[in-house]
Amino acid sequence: MKTSILKKIAIAACAAISGLSCLAEGGDGKISIDGSTTVGPIAKAFADFYKENHEGINITISESGSGNGVKSLMNSACDIAAMSRFMKPAEFKSCVEKGIMPVAHVIAFDAIAIAVNPQNKVSSLTIEQIADIYSGKITNWKELGGDDAKIVVISRDTNSGTYETFGELVMKKTPVGKDAEYVGSNGQARSRVNSTKYAIAYVGLGFADNSVKVVSVNGIIPDLKSVSSGKYPLARPLFLFTNAYPKMGSAIYDFVNLHLSKDGREIVKDLGFVPVCE
Amino acid sequence: MGGGGSFAQAFCAGAGRLLLFCITALPTVAIVFMIFFIAGEAVPFFADLKNTAEFFSGFEWRPSDSHAPHFGALSIFYGTVMVTLGSCVLAVPAGIVAAVALSEISSPKISNAFKPVVELLAAIPSVVYGFFALVVFAPLLQENGGVLLAVAVLLIAFPASVVAAMCLGELAASVFYKDVRNPPVKLFSVPIGALLMALGLFAAHKMLSVEITSGTNALNASVILAVMALPTIVSLSQDALGSVGRDMREGSFALGATRAETIFKVVLPCAKSGIAVAVILGLMRVVGETMVVWMASGNALKIPEPFYNFLEPVRTVTATIAGEMGEADQSTGSARYHVLFALSFCLLMASLIFNAAGQWIGGGFKLPKK
Q1: pLDDT tens across A81-126, in order?
Q2: Which of A51, A213, A230, B358 yields a CA-CA distance of 20 to 30 A from B340?
Q3: Which chain B residues have a beta carbon less than 8 Å from that of A91?
Q4: What ranges do the domains of chain A cover?
Q5: Any alpha helices (H) in chain B, and if so which ranges?
Q6: Domain regions of chain B by residue span
């Protein structure tokens, strides 16, 4: 009896100490994540998985765009910044000036899928054609072998990492045309394409479900294989940024390395992204 | 006890007054600080005269371009004006008619049932309106746009042509039959009404063939914003109508005026300053609304072609601020950050002018009360 009570006390003390150390490392046994709406679903799924296996950890996730993620990280408003692009030099610099050392963790690859309405006849485009559509050079589906109808061009807002990656990989410094409509999230872009017969939009591969038709780019349809083999041209890594490398064994350390585990890879795959290692 | 008690009382009263004064002063001080802060952050942008000139005269808005940024905000201002005017055209007549109907015509039972419902409209969060605009209204416009527009034209054209026919008929009759006591008004009003209705039908028929390629456009945003402005306009107009004294109405009835004459010639003129304030406050809600226009207006950076085409996407000032805010950190390019404050400053000035106009109208034409 006595020994068991002692044991219990010892366990409780250990738990308290580990809890305390957690407090010190993970900030009140709590991880707050802010940033990209593209990385958001992965972070959410990771958080759910993590919370199931670790009692007493509280993870909050805000999705306000990659740029806001950096801002939160540099102001110490969050522990992890989720980003769908790498930090810009200026952002890096202001982080360092504020005493924050950003460290990048690549947790998955994302392909930008070009989505059109399922009723659209066009099913393959080249990068040049996509750039011409978005710059306003091509305005009718007729020019691409489709119906004689005006193209409704839908872009993400300039706030989003997806916009910047698209600009980098497709537009290559050409400005987006003035007819383009802007929407605030991947989900919104998908729902607009789903409901608008002659719309085109770009979304993260994880958001390209059956409600839209994904066209091939330079002849290649984005999927796990074509992205991880590097064949699909519109792919990019997704990042979690932390302040310095997290202390081994801390909650943040576990969290940013979750994608390496088997479960983590499954989660990434289930969401339609491509795991880093297979 | 006497002296001490009264001193304590006086002290408590003084302290209470001071506390109340501080609480009252808080919003005023907050507003003053906000104006100073926004103006202060906007000054660095306006200090660059080249940027300022482009801001008020250019059409190209590309603040995110780090090599050659452009800050032409004219199309953004135009978008705000367009959406505001559009919702104004829809919400003001509907709101005033609804207020007149609720306070003058319908039975108290019905108005008591309707008023909370109208006010409930104001309590719905704007993101819900935006979601509705994006997921329900935009696809509806795309699929049945022509039919919807035709029905809308008919709904507006018929009552408008009846009213116009009545007024024009009376006018024509009084011109042609100057000395007759009961001029044959119907002789003029019926053909005029028929003509106007035929015009309305023709316009509706034309509308049937219109196809809307993109449902998130100025029309969508205007309609949703009109619905959002309605509760303000209706309930404040209703209050204004309610504050017209009973004596005015009874005097009018006693002089033999009908109910319509009483409404149009006595009650509405008496309540006009209150109604004007209601309209201005409704408009301010429209100008300042962000979430709905961000989701419903399409946010394209251009002036529609032709300029009155409500079926094209536009972008408003508020949506621009919301859309650009996240990337516009001081560290990532200061002009990009300050230009948003320049936009905010313009918006703030517009609201202040609107508000002052409301105060002036509300105070300038006081109700002729005894």
Answers
A1: 999 888 989 889 999 999 999 999 999 988 899 999 999 999 999 9
A2: B358
A3: 329, 331-332
A4: 5-109+235-270, 114-228
A5: 2-47, 49-57, 74-100, 108-123, 126-132, 138-176, 185-208, 218-242, 246-254, 259-261, 268-288, 291-296, 317-324, 334-364
A6: 41-55+75-123+216-362
CA nearest B212 in A: which residue? A196
What is the pTM for the complete model shown? 0.77
Q: pLDDT at position B95, please? A: 92
Asked whether this chain's domains A5-109+235-270 and A114-228 adopt the same fold, the reply is yes
How far, in Å, CA of B207 to CA of A25, rounded?
65
User: Pick from A150, A158, A180: which is nearest to B64 by CB?
Assistant: A158
**B210 close contact with A: CB closer than 8 A:** no
Please judge whether B216 and A71 are an interchain contact, meaning their C-beta atoms are less than 8 angstroms apart.
no
Contact between A104 and A241 (Cβ < 8 Å): yes
Does A181 sit within 8 Å of B313, measured CB to CB?
yes
What pLDDT score was predicted for residue A19? 44
Q: Strands A199-204 and A152-156: what pairing?
A: parallel
Going by C-alpha positions, the residue among A40, A110, A227, A158 that lies closest to residue B65 is A158
Hey, what CATH class is B41-55+75-123+216-362 in? mainly alpha
Residue ranges, chain A, pLDDT below 70:
1-28, 278
Contact criterion met (CB below 8 Å) for A82 and A34: yes
Return the pLDDT at B326: 66
In Å, how far is B128's CA from the nearest CA of chain A? 14
Q: Which of B76, B53, B55, B49 is nearest to B336 (CA)?
A: B55
DSSP B245-308: -HHHHHHHHHTT--HHHIIIIIIHHHHHHHHHHHHHHHHHHHHH--HHHHHHSB--SS--SSTT
State how far the Cα of A71 lies from the Cα of A67, in Å rounded to an integer.
6
* CB contacts < 8 A (A, B): 86
Architecture of domain A114-228: 3-Layer(aba) Sandwich (3.40)
First to last CA, chain B: 48
Give the pLDDT score at A24: 42
Name the β-bridge partners of A246: none
Q: Does B315 touch chain A (CB under 8 A)?
A: yes
Of A67, A90, A182, the CB nearest to B299: A182
CA-nearest of A23, A1, A35, A39 to A238 is A39
